[in-house]
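Lecture 7 notes. Example A: sequence first, then its structure tokens.
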Amino acid sequence: MSAEIKKTAVVTGAAGGIGSAVCRRLARDGFKTAVCCRTSIEKAQKLAFEINEEGGCAEVFQFDIKNSEAVTLAISRIEKEFGEIGLLVNNAGIANQSLFTDITDEIWKEMIDTNLTGAFYCSRAALPFMIRRKAGKIINIASIWGETGGSCEVHYSAAKAGIIGLTKALAKETGLSGITVNCVSPGVILTDMTSHFDRGVLDALKEETPLNRIGTPEDVAGAVSFLASSDADFITGQDIAVNGGMFI
């Protein structure tokens, strides 16, 4: 772990495959890591314990990103009790494959609320602290399907396309306050969201990928680490594709 502890990084959906990889990488980079989750509290606690055992600094915060009031309270608590928020990674999300005509009002609302509105709530809660200091970074996790659209994933694609639009617009609005806003769009990544794919599907996706492999959570974490670093201080409003060349 880094000997120098930086400001706090807030990571939502931290107990999942990409989220946990991002937390570990940011902790190694020296960030105090707020491991945020809604239901996977045991996984989050195990992750925080392991980060602390390795010499990092992590603490678990449990709240529902779909609840505006809960988000505001949690972000304020992290800022006041855990440390000044220098980085927000809006990673929490869900996936669902359905024919467009099978998407109910409830399925649509859950998808948009989790994958788009949650990022809006968290960003809105964290920004006042960043603006006050005229420094901070927001990194949103979008998706290749937000860039290209995915068959049988219209609701997911729409939410992730919204994340990309939010990123670009917010970057323009917060630039004068010294805040950068970027997003990372993963391709096919080996996580729980792809665990239902059989070997034939994975092999076919691998063949469609110029780098001839499926991505890992660590691949995504590497991109987040770069955007969170001082090397990316002049980069804002960008969508970084981590997809092995599947979509160029």
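Example B, a different protein, same format:
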Amino acid sequence: MSEHAVSIDVREIMRCLPHRYPFLLVDRVTELEPDVRIKALKNVTINEPFFVGHFEQYPVMPGVLIIEALAQAAGILAIKSQGERADNELYFFVGIDNARFKRQVVPGDQLVFEVTQKTVKRGIGKYVARALVDGQVACEAEIMCARREV
């Protein structure tokens, strides 16, 4: 195991992120280096609520939800890098660049999210993110998250 291998379960993820079912899209964090990178997982099952209406005969995970899951992983990295989130703070997904979809994601797949921090300035972080299935890139993008008081 890597020196940065960790196991952050869904209960700890829920302490970081305000998202809840059906919109919490990260199941587990397996590696974390604060201010550097995160590796996280999402197990995709046929029971996902979006499969009811997203191509009945050929269920495919919507790309926008893969992007959202990458943003959630980036948010966890940001929060863990800053030393937790205050009760009056949220991290918002504020930007996306160079998003590309390379492979469909279907029930039974396990998405592996790899997010690397590029920069953080004035509470806005930029991240390079990719989602993989069986080692193949399903999606890649540059994501921006901003910490704001609410």
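Note on Example B: DSSP finds two helices and seven strands in the chain. Residues 63-82 form the longest helix (20 residues).
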